[in-house]
Write a structure and sequence with these properties.
The structure is a homodimer of 270-residue chains. Chain A has 12 helices and 8 strands. By secondary structure, chain A is of the alpha/beta class. Chain A has a single domain, classed as Alpha-Beta Barrel (TIM Barrel). In chain A, 54% of the residues are buried. The model of chain A has no long low-confidence stretch (mean pLDDT 95).
Chain lengths: 270, 270
């Protein structure tokens, strides 16, 4: 999906919500365990219910890999289901990959050619040749970790170098030599509040993928106040607060209500 | 596997070689494509042939994931085969994972409980809570990226902070607050030469996993000169130069010869 198509979706639907499909067999409603593929059954119901209120879905690969081969089958079925039924939704695999060039190239082939995702989260530690193989696919995106939502983000990401530049700022600046606002976004945690102002100084136009509202405690208002651009420039993710809002047979309906609530807040902020 | 067991293996077998199972369907001998699971058939033959000359195996997950569900089946079969037939070999998944705490915990469960690996490579960018979930398993190891073998390693890993500390040194120092030489190793590329001296100043006792000899051009002598400790302290990986040394029906035999050559060099250096 191109940047223009994404912006069009956001302003047409008046939402920039991404629903995180962090599907955990231990947390889904019990009645689904009778299904042949409980994880896929859950995802399918959540997707059908929440699609009007979001522009993106983000399965976190760890949850699928934790089930081994079965999990990969559920993951691939989920992506196929999205591609077939919701081609206007932006599909992100939260994978946090990044390896030497030839290995990153294999990951890129897997995720962009075979599984047909729109975007992949990538870790920046290994530098340029670990990132650029993902930038060779038109309409596909790298979402590079910049300033994450967790406590450990302070350990290295905020380290200030001899020129007064913090590591996350160097990641933002340096990576703009490799890609641009049409094929690269950044992960910035909603828990980082006013840091969005600093991010926008270095990356004024890039879309930011923002995890951390909901269960992790970040504020949507604050994110928008400091991070929103004229093109919106934000995809805000919520996982647990939406998909696990209810554990009865009404889970999908309640998830839709929760997604709708967030989408209404977003419409007011756009 | 504990540190003492690993050291025992190294000095008994007089080798600290790790064979990298970067198995690519496009690079294995053609006659194997008739097998039901060509990737597993290749791995099995390589393992049986090289086991006397190495102490560790390191499948790189990207190569398996690039084949989707089929690849995961080959990966899990390979690990089971190793666990059943070569329990004295140290098994590393080169996965370069690292995510917020609850997600890293899921990865740890997958790789250490379900798949039963000895060690996993982890990326440090997200800090403490992305690493510590992997340190909760006795006898299991985190191998944290410190100074990698690729060109892009210069982009961020060598950034010097306001106290004169480079990022890879900060990773080495800071991570020793989370784990110790009994449950943590570091990835240091063989291409980094004399930098091993600097590494040993911050991490004198930790084992280092060293990729980059062979196809990537690093020197075994230099790595040992600057990086070896009284306990050896090194696991040196070679992938392509061993497993793809020959593409005929003799591939396993030739791989064994190549592994043996490296092991003989290692015996002389120990």
């Amino acid at each position: 999906m191109t940047r223009q198509e994404l912006i069009h979706q956001i302003f047409t639907k008046k939402t920039f919500l991404c629903v995180g499909l962090d599907t955990d067999i231990k947390k889904i409603p019990e009645h689904l365990l009778q299904e042949e593929d409980p994880i896929f059954a859950f995802n399918q119901a959540i997707i059908d219910a929440t699609a009007p209120y979001c522009v993106a879905y983000k399965p976190n690969l760890a949850f699928y890999e934790s089930m081994g081969v079965k999990g990969w089958i559920s993951f691939e079925k989920t992506i196929s289901y999205l591609n077939e039924n919701y081609p206007d939704h932006f599909i992100i695999a939260d994978a946090k990959r990044g390896d030497i060039g030839n290995t990153s190239a294999m990951y890129a082939r897997t995720f962009f050619e075979e599984i047909n995702l729109d975007a992949l989260t990538v870790a920046p530690y290994m530098g340029e040749d670990s990132v650029t193989p993902f930038l060779q696919y038109p309409g596909k995106w790298v979402i590079l970790l910049a300033l994450t939502s967790n406590k450990g983000s302070h350990d290295f990401q905020l380290t200030t170098d001899q020129n007064g530049e913090r590591l996350f700022e160097k990641v933002l600046r340096k990576s703009q030599e490799w890609g641009n606002a049409d094929n690269m976004m950044y992960v910035v945690g909603a828990t980082q509040g006013q840091m969005f102002e600093d991010i926008r100084k270095v990356a004024p136009d890039h879309f930011l993928l923002v995890p951390g509202i909901g269960a992790q405690g970040g504020s949507l208002e604050e994110v928008c106040k400091y991070g929103m651009t004229k093109d919106c420039g934000l995809i805000v993710n919520s996982s647990r607060a939406i998909i696990y809002a209810d554990k009865t047979e009404k889970f999908a309906e309640v998830a839709a209500q929760e997604a709708k609530k967030v989408a209404e807040q977003m419409a007011a902020l756009l």
